[in-house]
Write a structure and sequence with these properties.
Blueprint: E1 4-9, E2 14-15, E3 18-21, E4 25-31, E5 40-41, E6 56-63, E7 65-70, E8 78-83, E9 89-95
Parallel strand pairs: 1-4, 3-8
Antiparallel strand pairs: 1-2, 4-6, 5-7, 6-9, 7-8
């Protein structure tokens, strides 16, 4: 079942830090803190760039597996997304409120 989940970005944390979703679902991270942050996959498969307070970033996840991520500005901020029951994930970046072109491929190495 596809769904849309939300993760709040605070000034020293992601809430919730670990999210489990089904393939085809999306996660939207929203910076509710007072400082800029990023949402950056450890393997480089997605990167929000700098999110200023109030900014959002959405990623659609296909396939299965776990991808870990962090804030490049505050590396102690860490989280993970588990899609389905294992294997490899294929996240596809989607800026908030915009559609990403079909056929976009993510990096390997999950």
């Amino acid at each position: 079942m596809q769904d849309a989940r939300s993760v709040d970005i605070g000034d020293n944390f992601f809430d919730p830090p670990d999210v489990a979703i089904e393939p085809g679902s999306t996660i939207t991270w929203t910076n509710n803190g007072d400082e800029p942050h990023t949402v950056t996959a450890d393997d480089g498969s997605f990167d929000s760039g700098v999110l200023n307070p109030g900014d959002s970033y959405t990623v659609a996840f296909d396939g299965q597996g776990t991808v870990t991520y962090h804030c490049t500005i505050h590396p102690e901020m860490r989280g993970s997304v588990t899609v389905g029951g294992g294997g490899g994930t294929a996240p596809a970046e989607q800026p908030a409120n915009e559609s990403m072109p079909e056929g976009m491929e993510a990096g390997e190495g999950y």
